[in-house]
Design a protein that fits this description.
The chain is an alpha/beta fold and 491 residues long. It has a domain of 246 residues: Nucleotidyltransferase, domain 5 (2-Layer Sandwich), CATH 3.30.420.40. It is 33% helix and 22% strand. It has 16 helices and 22 strands. The strands form seven sheets. The protein has a seven-stranded mixed β-sheet, with helices on both faces. A five-stranded mixed β-sheet has the order 3-2-1-5-13, with helices on both faces. The longest helix is centred in the last third of the chain and has 25 residues. The mean pLDDT is 91.
Length: 491
């Protein structure tokens, strides 16, 4: 029976799956990938730890399957996280600057002081100026890491997002796909290419960037002379035939192939995407435009609303002692009827859509002597839900109302979050039994390219439904609290 592998390199963990032709997961292995915070507002990964985790996750799956049946591999990845490495040795030249990192706020402020530059970025990329995206991370690495600057001078610098870094150490090719490229602030949505005028805004060279290939197609075979190919001889020769950023892979994994279909992934952050079809739509307001995927017949686009903290907020609440552990949210938040007036705004990495305030900081307010740990757990659940409801509102205001909310991701396993979102949006919330829709999407892209599946095989059916039960007054409290910490008005 044919098997397709998927490698999902995430912010704090790396998962490999083996998927059979019936799209059933035959093997799964996850390895932690530490996220480090060396300074306030900074977030970074060790590039060697990323490669080690990829090797260990794939090795764990290889041990459980017949590798002679492997037809293809797909890769999906945390987006925007930016790496610089040596083209000759493959060695990383600096830590991987995470998508959550805010170290490039000064560079973003300089850009924001140039209205024409901001308008050009918005019109060509569909994005807003924010440290979230990759371009300012590249500029920071050139300005602050001597080894990166030296590699550029000696014409041996490679820049890329995590997919390109892993691909280089798996196949030996310096490649990316349009979904990842469209998150850099350097990719022209209308032309489908790197844009030299956008690069010029930050005095960035385009030569170190990877070539762009369709998301479903040829990215090379696992090569024995690469770091991961040498470590995994059983996979040598396997074609890597699918690549997409994690949120795009999740949209594909849900089978959201029709304009207007959408999904939300609750993981380290929260991300809601809606398919907008084959025409670029530059939205008004706080959401961004992006490439969803390209199957080789032209790009499909999406609108996205992003919040930077979701699962990471649960980790904080656990470490701070409010939650017994990150998985106790259901029990604790469900044990009380409300938050006793407490409100939580999870702006640990600034506020994403629809605010886009990089300077905002998290807040927990409205406490009293009657507030218990369980009330604060409820406030955390309500705060996460309110930010997600605002993302959906922003997508609706951009012309993409959502009738049904499809959820995946590890944090979506919390029933309380699914029910509160149904209440807050007055919409049905659907949750799939399989939580790894991101990895399934990557497998789908690869299997589609290699003829294992057709597109009609790739729709994932929801198995659980949450319906609205009561009005959610906490959303208005969240808006008021967010206004107090953000330098942006929200009606």
């Amino acid at each position: 029976m044919p098997i397709v592998l998927a490698l999902d390199q995430g912010t704090t963990g790396t998962t490999a799956l083996a998927v059979d032709e019936d799209r059933q997961v035959e093997a799964r292995h996850t390895v932690d990938t530490p996220l480090e915070h060396p300074r306030k507002g900074w977030a970074e990964n060790d590039p060697e730890a990323i490669l080690d985790a990829c090797e260990q996750a794939l090795a764990g799956v290889v041990d459980e399957i017949d590798t002679d049946e492997v037809e293809a591999m797909g890769i999906t990845n945390q987006r925007e996280t930016t790496l610089a490495w040596d083209a000759d040795s493959g060695d990383a030249l600096a830590p991987a600057v995470s998508w959550q990192c805010r170290r490039t706020e000064p560079l973003c402020r300089e850009l924001e002081d140039r209205p024409a530059a901001v308008a050009r970025i918005r019109e060509r990329t569909g994005l807003v100026v924010d440290p979230y995206f990759s371009a300012t991370k590249m500029r920071w690495l050139l300005d602050n890491e001597a080894r990166v600057e030296a590699a550029l001078a000696e014409d041996r610098l490679r820049f890329g997002t995590v997919d390109a870094f892993v691909l280089d150490h798996l196949t030996g090719h310096h490649l990316t796909d349009p979904s990842n490229a469209s998150r850099t602030m350097l990719y022209n949505l209308h032309e489908g290419t790197w844009d030299p005028e956008l690069a010029e805004l930050l005095d960035l060279p385009l030569e170190p960037l990877p070539a762009i290939r369709p998301s479903s197609g040829g990215f090379g075979d696992v090569h024995p002379d690469t770091r991961l190919g040498e470590a995994l001889p059983e996979l040598q020769g396997v074609p890597v035939a699918g690549v997409a950023g994690d949120q795009h892979a999740s949209l594909f994994g849900h089978g959201c192939f029709t304009p207007g279909e959408s999904k939300g992934t609750l993981g380290t952050g929260a991300f809601f995407l809606v398919n907008t079809g084959g025409e670029v739509l530059i939205p008004e307001g706080g959401v961004v435009a992006t490439v969803a995927w390209d199957l080789g017949d032209g790009p499909v686009y999406a609108l996205e609303g992003s919040a930077f903290a979701c699962g990471s907020a649960l980790e904080w609440a656990s470490e701070a002692g409010w939650l017994r552990d990150p998985t106790s949210l259901d029990e604790q938040a469900g044990s009380v009827d409300d938050a006793d007036g407490a409100t939580f705004v999870p702006a640990f990495y600034g506020l994403g859509a629809p605010f886009w305030d990089a300077d905002a900081q998290a807040g927990l307010m409205g406490l009293s002597t009657s507030t218990t740990r369980d009330h604060i757990a409820r406030a955390v659940a309500e705060g996460l839900t309110a930010q997600n409801a605002l993302l959906l509102d922003a997508l609706a205001e951009a012309g993409q109302p959502i009738d049904v909310v499809r959820l995946d991701g590890g944090v979506s396993r919390a029933d309380v979050l699914c029910q509160l979102l149904a209440d807050a949006t007055d919409q049905r919330v659907l949750r799939t039994e399989e939580g790894d829709l991101t990895a399934l999407g990557a497998a789908g892209l690869a299997g589609l390219a290699e003829g294992v599946w057709t597109r009609k095989d790739l729709r994932e059916d929801a198995t659980e439904t949450f319906t609205p039960r009561e009005e959610a007054a906490f959303v208005d409290r969240y808006k008021a609290a967010a206004r107090g910490i953000a330098d942006v008005e929200l009606t």
